[in-house]
Amino acid sequence: MNISTFLFSIFLILKLCNVIDWSWWWVCSPLWIGLILSLILRVIWEYFKRKSRATIFDRLNDLKKQQEKLLKERNK
């Protein structure tokens, strides 16, 4: 059980026992806030993963070009 589920359970019990008079949106807020945060983190993760992957391939291409250049100079 993560913190979102735990908070939702507490808010739900409090709402059903009439201890709090919140709308159902706020009672369920730990669930949708957790979902939104996880989606944002996933987008950031994918962005940096693709950025680093492109950087690695760019470096490999540069090294390959340097190697070809050195081989051409050596064969002359």
Uncertain residue ranges: none
Along the chain, the helix and strand elements come as HHH
Number of helices: 3
The major β-sheet equals:
none
Question: Which descriptor suits the 3D outline?
Answer: rod-shaped
Structural class: mainly alpha
> What integer value in Å does the Rg equal?
27 Å
Average predicted local confidence, pLDDT = 90
User: Strand portion, in percent?
Assistant: under 5%
Q: Care to count the β-strands?
A: 0
Q: Which range best describes the helical content: under 10%, 10-25%, 25-40%, 40-55%, 55-70% or over 70%?
A: over 70%
| Oligomeric state of the chains in view | single chain
Q: In whole angstroms, how far apart are the ends?
A: 68 Å
In short:
Helices cover 86% and strands 0% of the residues. The chain is an all-alpha fold and 76 residues long. The mean pLDDT is 90.
What would you note in describing this structure?
86% of the residues lie in helices and 0% in strands. It is mostly helical. α1 runs antiparallel to α3.
Essential attributes:
76 residues; mainly alpha
What topology does this entry show?
Blueprint: H1 3-16, H2 24-27, H3 29-75
